[in-house]
Amino acid sequence: MPATRTTGGRPGSPADVISEARRLHRRALEVGHAGRNVMEIRLLRQALSMLESADAGQHGSVEWIRTRSRILITLAYVEAELGTIAQGLARLEALRPQVAQLADEAVRAELNGSIDGNYAGLLIRGGRYDESIPLLASAIAHKERNLELGTDDPQRLIDSLVASVANLGQAYLETGRLEPAFVNLNRAITLGIDHNLTMRVAYLRHVLGDLNQRAGDIPEALRYYEEAERVYLELGPDMLTRLRLDQAQALVTAGLADEAGRHLDEVLPLMREQRVQQDLAEAEAVRAAAALLEQDLGLARRMAESARRRFKRRGSDAWAAVAALIVLRVDVARALDEAKIPAALPARAVQLADELTALRLRDEAALAKTLAARLELRRGKLAKATELLAEVRRPRAITPIDQRMLLRLCQAELASATGNRRKAFAQARAGLAELGQARDRMGALELVSGTAIHGQQLGDLAVRLVLDGGTAAAEARRMFTWLERTRAQTYRYEPVFGIDDPQLVELMAEIRHLGYSLRQAMLDGRPTAKLRSRYAERQRAAMRLGWHAASRWGKPRPVASVADVAGHLGSKALVSFAVSGSSMLAVVLVEGRVRLVRLGSAVAATETARRLHADLNAMAPDHLPAPLLDAIRTSARKQSGALDAQLMRPLAPFIRDREVVVVPTGALYAVPWGVLDSLRSTPVVVAPSATAWLGASKAVHDSGATILVRGPGLQAAVGEIDKIAKHHRGAVSVAGEDATVSAVLSALDGAALAHIAAHGEHEAENALFSRLELIDGALFAHELARLRRPPRQVVLAACELALNRIRPGDEALGFAGALLAGGVSTVVAAVSRVGDVPVAATMDDYHRGLASGAAPDVALANAVAVDPLRRPFVCLGS
Fold it and tell me: What is the signed CA dihedral for 212, 218, 224, 226, rounded to 10 degrees?
């Protein structure tokens, strides 16, 4: 191929050669932005070959040097992305002597600014942030000088200046200097807006998301990511994979490891296709962190090792050390689980801490040293553990919350091992207070609930320490306090009513339509793959938007004390179940006195509860053959009897004939308490925590109407609703074609009692997409944020939508959970499947009781007692 264009058979002029090389450079940038990096390199090398083949007399000209330098700067960056950072840095360094000889100050400033900016960018990609800061300052000065002297492409120069200012902000962010990070990023955004750099501004908002993530403001970070995504979808789809990576990192910080894992499992194949090794390796590292949080240690180690190898090949030593830290965390978790601590493991942790310190990764070094101390502590080397902990530097404002909790845990364990229980409790108390501060900034229900995972081990330690002190009255009161500190914090927040974000409303309407179309396609036997994919993608978009746009949680209520609860409990009894190690226990509060009762094996109780739940589901259909029904009933009675014997009979001397408030744990949320003989006909209320129960009990509601909602596809519900209407004079019915989502939401707003007979489905992957099926599609739990005056009581009559999903910290979510967290005081719902006939009978009896003046728990206890195994309803909240 000839090196230059020819015109009429004659070689092109030097000007033509330079012009063609520039055209190839522009084309290379275009294909590079589209992710076609191999083609980009080919075009860049073709442009260089063309320049080198030009008249030798032109090799020293300003325009020849300028064009060649621009091409080599681009090539350096691409080669570093696909190869090693050292390659790119060496290529950039080789340019400096020739640029320094240029007499034209403007061109010299332009090229020096570009070399320094790109050199710093590669250092940032390698995690060498401190080294990048002076180079970025130099790049900015050169570019500002270039603007003063004049340039033939001011728009390009402004874009480059904005990039350098933004990179300086990012470098400050990564080194923990938040104030200069904010200053530079906001300056870059102002410059970008002033010069209509839409894509650049979107990227800067993306970086501001990173900054807020590091500062601990996850909802604000997610808001910035969402703003960036809207522009990326239109102008820069190649940036979406990087955005998903940063969103996933935010979710890991918030404890939503499952959501983060799904994010990354979608984008990792795309990253492998794009072959951008740095982003791919970072994504694998974050995927490893998510798997570690979910205790999937095999996946965590595989991903972390893959990331470490990629970083090593690129010469990203700092990032490789971070990946090695995740590998270490996996190995430490395995060793602690197996109670076998290899002598070499603490030494390896100390060595890695030293490497991280040398790389100026302060927080990561502190984490490695803390892990070493914890290992030595488990080996019984208390003096060594004390020495190592003394070397751990104090956490900074930007130190991740999981690292803070681990340090507190290690300090508490050391205090306990040395016999200082008071100090151990103090460390646990301080740690959970820090976690509470982080949680207070989360906003959305799922983010608030997710953070509990970071404090789980600290809370478990406190519970074990209390149990070690015996079962005296003082220890029982202390146990009550610790359980309230560690569980169901979601329900501590005062709801903020009437949030109606237009963008979220529009998204939910689209999801509803897609869900309707999907069901129709399934009924018609048409292909559903595309509809399913779109439905899932729109759900994820609404979920991300909901994390910041539909935040509905106000200030936190204080954790309820024994005196607070006892004062409101009156003659009732409160039973709070908990698990410590392999043991089940209960804290019983009656007339101001607290007792701590050990209840045997937690594994046995959990297994019995699960078997009972399976039996109740199996016997739900209305028309089972009698022999089969009898067999299932016999099994269910056996399981309920075993559960009653283990959990309730030991508490009988304290409870006697009192009404009971039950705070379950884990699988006990699936127990319909009325099936236990000890509680048959006993009014029982189920609450996520004593604090949540107290808040629901004190809630003030305006008097309102009784609303009766009947969804589609429930023929039996026609008679059911008609019967219920007779018990409530003036009840408003919303049924048939009138039972639309908007009509039901409108009717719910301000109602005193809302009875909803509609098919429902719990969404295991995301509780806020649990739904009720109405005539025009699904009413999602997400949409309850739109209510300005939540109903006092909601009855969910035809679905299994109680507190279905249990997160760490006994954070119980689901459709009923969203109602309770949103300000509804009482929710009546089934904890297992239930047939149409028993639903209708239960609801008729229940509403008759309400109409006679009985409280919801009393009315439900009487209705369920008729046939407890076929009527698995519970009264939730208050």
Answer: 160
- CA–CA–CA angle 358, 360, 366 (5° rounding): 90
Q: Which two tokens stand for residue 698?
A: 């004190």
Inter-residue contact 222 to 209 (CB < 8 Å): yes
Q: SS3 for 644-704, per residue?
A: HHHHHHHHHHHHCCCCEEEECCHHHHHCCHHHCHHHCCCCEEECCCHHHHHHHHHCCCCCC
Report the distance separating Cα 22 and Cα 382, nearest Å.
67
- In this structure, is the dihedral angle defined by the CA atoms of residues 640, 645, 651 and 657, taken in order, positive or negative? positive
3-state class (DSSP) for residue 598 = strand
Cβ(43)–Cβ(31) below 8 Å: yes
Alpha-carbon distance of 514 to 294, in angstroms, equals 31
Q: What is the 3-state secondary structure (H, E, C) of 398-423?
A: CCCHHHHHHHHHHHHHHHHHCCCHHH
| Greatest Cα pair distance in the chain | 108
Q: Which residue has the tokens 């969910």?
A: 796
Segment (H or E) for 804: none
Q: How far apart are CA 705 and CA 62, in angstroms?
A: 83
Q: What would you report as the CA-atom Rg of the chain, rounded to the nearest whole angstrom?
A: 32
Distance, in Å, from the CA atom of 184 to the CA atom of 205, rounded to the nearest integer, reads 12
Task: State the pTM of this model.
Answer: 0.76
**Residue 55 backbone dihedrals phi, psi, to 5 degrees:** -50, 125
Instruction: Give, in order, the Cα–Cα distances in Å from 737 to each of 300, 352, 404, 704, 798.
Output: 51, 66, 54, 24, 19
What pairing do the DSSP bridges indicate for beta strands 771-774 and 706-710? unpaired
Dihedral, CA atoms, 209, 215, 216, 218, nearest 10 degrees? Answer: -10
Show the DSSP H helices in 339-455 as ranges: 344-358, 362-378, 382-391, 401-417, 421-440, 445-450
Nearest to 641 by CA among 678, 610, 606: 678
Determine the distance from the C-alpha atom of residue 235 to the mean position of all C-alpha atoms in its chain, rounded to a whole number. Answer: 27
CA dihedral 317, 323, 329, 335 (to 10 degrees): -90
- 3-class secondary-structure state, position 572: coil
Helix-, strand-, coil-residue percentages of the chain, each rounded to 5: 65, 10, 25
Taking the C-alpha atoms of residue 448 and residue 441, their distance in angstroms, rounded to an integer, is 8
CA distance 159 to 72: 19
Q: Which candidate, 404, 585, 402, places its Cα nearest to that of 478? A: 585
For residue 819, give the nearest of 828, 810, 830, 811 by alpha carbon.
Answer: 828
Residue 254 to residue 217: CA distance in whole angstroms? 10
**Residue 791 host element (H or E):** none
How far is it, in rounded angstroms, from Cα 671 to Cα 872? 8
Q: How far apart are CA 448 and CA 550, in angstroms?
A: 13
Give the HSE-up count for residue 630: Cα atoms under 13 Å, Cβ half-sphere: 3
DSSP readout, 545-602? Answer: HHHHHT--EEEEPPPPPHHHHHHHHTT-EEEEEEEETTEEEEEEEETTEEEEEEEEEH
How far lies 469's CA from each of 466, 474, 791, in Å? 5, 9, 44
Q: CA dihedral defined by 293, 298, 299, 301, rounded to 10 degrees?
A: 80
Q: Are strands 873-877 and 684-686 parallel, antiparallel or unpaired?
A: parallel
Place of tokens 């076609």: 36
| 592 Rama class: left (phi>0) / alpha (psi -120 to 50) / beta | left
Taking the chain (878 residues) in runs of 10, the rounded mean pLDDT of each run is 34 74 87 79 88 69 86 88 86 90 88 91 88 94 90 85 90 85 90 90 90 82 88 87 88 82 86 81 92 91 95 88 94 89 93 91 91 93 94 84 88 92 90 77 57 74 83 85 78 65 76 80 84 81 65 70 92 93 93 93 95 93 91 96 97 93 91 95 93 86 86 69 88 89 90 88 67 84 79 83 55 73 88 88 94 95 95 93
d(CA 349, CA 373): 9
